[in-house]
Amino acid sequence: MTKRNIPVKMNETYTLSIRDLGIHGEGIGSVEDFTVFVPGALPGETVTARIVSAKKSYAQGRLISVDSPSPFRTKPECPAYLACGGCQISHLTYEGQLALKEKRVKDVVSRLGGFSEDLVLPILPADHPWNYRNKMAVPVSQVTGGPVIGYYRQGSHQVVPIDGCLIQEEENNRVLRFAQGFMARHHVQGYNEKSRKGSVRHIMARTGDKGEVMVVIVTATPTLPFAELWVKEMRQLLPEVVSIYHNVQKSPGNVILGQTLHHLWGRKTLTATLAGLSFEVSPFSFFQVHKDQAEKLYAKALEYADLTGSETVIDAYCGTGTISLCLAKKAKKVIGIEIVEAAIEDAGRNADFNHVENVEFHAADAGKLMPKLYKEGLRPDVIVMDPVRAGCSEDVLKAAAAMEPKRIVYVSCNPATFARDAKVLAGLGYTLKKVQPVDMFPQTMHVETVALLEK
């Protein structure tokens, strides 16, 4: 086989036509059919880029100039945008973001699934594309000048200092600024990942109903320096804070919370409502970070389930039971299945808290439990799937199809794995009827979908 010559050279500049964006929001162009990724470039633009790295099959370019700008290009509102890795496409107008995400869903449904892109409906936009996240978890590091709190620079663990995030609810930003001031005043050390020295690793905040806030201070050390003072000053300066925890995470890596949790002050849980249901949220609980869009997503899933009150529904990958409890309001019975036992425990508590009695939860592998339930005589009318980004296992897809429900509602956070799974379900006798994209996370490349498949 002839070895291909790479048509680009290091540190040379090239003019590129950008045709698409990559998964991290980087522009994609070509030099003689050789792919070049250019962060900061947008589809439809002609740009000049300098090659900064070259591999066998692609190169990375640094944007030098935008020679022909996209009509959707805009100046990012965030002053830390170019350095911070939290958002990827804030240099694209919101109209442009929506068009990009809708196109992305159409592309994968057609290219990977083999379906008509006409099945993809217009994307559901966010009413508020800024200040929407109700949960914040910011890393803390220690540098020569003292502790730094912010977000990681994209592709690294270097913390970019910020004094607020434009996609966070303002209550969370107030916690961030308080932590910056407190640690500076009292000379509290941040954590150095390389030396594994220092104390505070993360500041986490969750905003619930009525602007009430839970704060979790995560340390690498078994004790929290100035613990009583953290509580005293936070109560004085942040009256919206109703719960304060200290979490210990000694293990290296990207997992934010450790298993050791100390309740320092206030309530042990935070109350948050979603789709008319109330949830008691703890530091470890999963809860949708964009409440308004999650309600649109769940409403669309309920619409596609088309429940009349007589149906039995299986909610595979049910997590903490949020979709299950929404379904239970309109179904005869809902069976939630989730392999993570802690999530099932939360689901049971959420059902009790909302006085929902027509739902049952099982800590099990859905691919193994569903065939067992089928042999026992269970015939669900609807199966709802909401898997992780990797999509459904083949066992779950085959088990679901074997139960012959009238409808399968597939909720996905990854259009590519959804398209792959929909193709498998089509081979098992199901017809894809429609796909609804939902913009759950404005300013980022992420897009959610809800799809209906029928027997």
TrEMBL record:
The keyword Mitochondrion does not apply. InterPro entries: MeTrfase_TrmA_CS (IPR030391), NA-bd_OB-fold (IPR012340), SAM-dependent_MTases_sf (IPR029063), TRAM_dom (IPR002792), U5_MeTrfase_fam (IPR010280). Keywords: Methyltransferase, S-adenosyl-L-methionine, Transferase. S-adenosyl-L-methionine binds at residues 288, 317, 338, 386. The keyword Amino-acid biosynthesis does not apply. GO terms for biological process: rRNA base methylation. Belongs to the class I-like SAM-binding methyltransferase superfamily. RNA M5U methyltransferase family. This is 23S rRNA (Uracil-5-)-methyltransferase RumA. It comes from Dialister succinatiphilus YIT 11850.
